[in-house]
């Protein structure tokens, strides 16, 4: 008998149907030489401190840092989980071969392997690795099963992530709570959550400490075009008026006119983070809300695997794209320009070297079922429009630059004219927000009248008063982008791709990290803006160890985890560095004689945690 273990009952039903295992039993399906069972996500977890020694049950500074000689796993103490695990263990004992059918990603690999380890599986194991749950994709996956050994580096990276979070999270939380917390309220510190909180706090401090300053810019209108002077902004109105007087007496002469044609490629396909950012911008959807929605679309077979960090497709997907496009009946008007033409194949879309486990998120081509929620329709349509636009031509435009002079003062004006909309036509249909809203037409992208070098005439110079502006508060969308690029806020897509290697957190966990910060009472939302609470501000100010709160330094750890995943870095070295780090942090905190104390306003979550830990401290 061949045993298949999936991560969810719904996936188990689909796989059982395809394999012909049609007889439903308690906790599994059976038939045609197969048994198909499932976990409920995580059935196992790393052991807690008290599982290693009774000394670690009570919270005590003298016990820190807690570093087990060897990390172990245990079954989660829940009756439904225990019952399902016994089913899995019994089936493994009876099986000739096991197929790991967990979600095809790092977390899915850890979930399944821990269950098999706990069940003492010694049977041959193969791996189903698929990017969508369509029948065709599942059948294709079973025709090309991967070996258990192929995914060993992926599992090792996931194990290192879990152990690293245990070492830093549990030790640092106990350390800061015991040292600095008043009334025994938990001060939650984590490898990813703390640098993420620091991003929000630091931005808020920049805004709070920002002192606005007035300045004046010299501009002129000729004949109906606004031209800006090359002079820097004036710090006083008097200084600006002197410059204004110098140009008022002179006509404006056009000294140079240049036109340059340019092209703008379609936006990249979605990875999970960019999808969350876009849905936050367009629909004000939270990161966790978008993740739940795209996961639902994936389980309904409408979109491909969502927890991805690449915006590229592999070459083998290209032959399938025509059929996927033809299946999008509700978008037939947008597909007309593609009819009769060979589909465009851009290197910015199809690149095998940029894809490791899974390709970018795209529709699968399955028909839409009735009853999709508004969120599901919004997210699905957003993915579809991005996918369609990838096969449209570049947007072509003409950039005009005009240089002029009034007396000795230089002026300049620029304008952009769209010649061919190209992919932008996809977003011009009624009711669809335009892609990259606000970028296509800014102050310097207006349509300009024709100018001739040497022409001159009267103009209308003026001083324009402006005020310096503070940076903007993070939204969930911009915070996700900052996490992805380790705090470097960039809009350039190529630069963003290069920075993703050292982003903090994984695409699948970033939304959960933001939710943790809400629950801990460290951040709150005002409309779309994220604000740090006093508790969050106090915690970050309390932490002197830069490695615990620096997004860039935490990004380096994440980069090493990705190297481990590729087999290019030593897992033992990574864990050894974290052990050394927590030992150094412990010594530094214990040496602090400042008597500083944090008394955060307790949230319901904190009250619950405090009551739970009360007996242990």
How would you characterize this protein structure?
This protein has a seven-stranded mixed β-sheet with strand order 2-3-4-1-7-8-9, with helices on both faces. The model is unreliable at 433-444 and 610-617 (pLDDT under 50). It is of the alpha+beta class and 617 residues long. The protein is built from 21 helices and 18 strands. The protein has helices spanning 9-19, 49-52, 79-94, 106-118, 135-143, 152-180, 193-208, 237-248, 272-283, 287-299, 318-326, 332-335, 374-389, 476-484, 493-499, 507-519, 534-542, 546-549, 551-566, 571-590, 604-614; strands at 2-6, 23-25, 28-31, 34-38, 44-46, 73-75, 97-101, 125-127, 146-147, 214-221, 226-229, 252-264, 395-406, 409-420, 456-457, 460-467, 523-526, 529-532. The relative contact order is 0.13.
Total number of helices: 21
Helix content: 40-55%
Q: Outline the low-pLDDT stretches.
A: 433-444, 610-617
Strand percent estimate:
15-25%
Total beta strands: 18
Overall pLDDT confidence = 91
Structural class: alpha+beta
| Silhouette | flat
Strand order, largest beta sheet = 2-3-4-1-7-8-9
Radius of gyration: 29 Å
- State the major sheet: 7 strands, mixed
End-to-end Cα distance, whole Å, is: 50 Å
Short synopsis of the structure:
With 617 residues, the protein is α+β, with helices and mostly antiparallel strands. It has helices at residues 9-19, 49-52, 79-94, 106-118, 135-143, 152-180, 193-208, 237-248, 272-283, 287-299, 318-326, 332-335, 374-389, 476-484, 493-499, 507-519, 534-542, 546-549, 551-566, 571-590, 604-614, and strands at residues 2-6, 23-25, 28-31, 34-38, 44-46, 73-75, 97-101, 125-127, 146-147, 214-221, 226-229, 252-264, 395-406, 409-420, 456-457, 460-467, 523-526, 529-532. The strands form four sheets. Strands 2-3-4-1-7-8-9 form a seven-stranded mixed beta sheet, sandwiched between helices. Strands 15-12-13-14-11-10-16 form a seven-stranded antiparallel beta sheet, with helices on one face. A two-stranded antiparallel ribbon has the order 5-6.
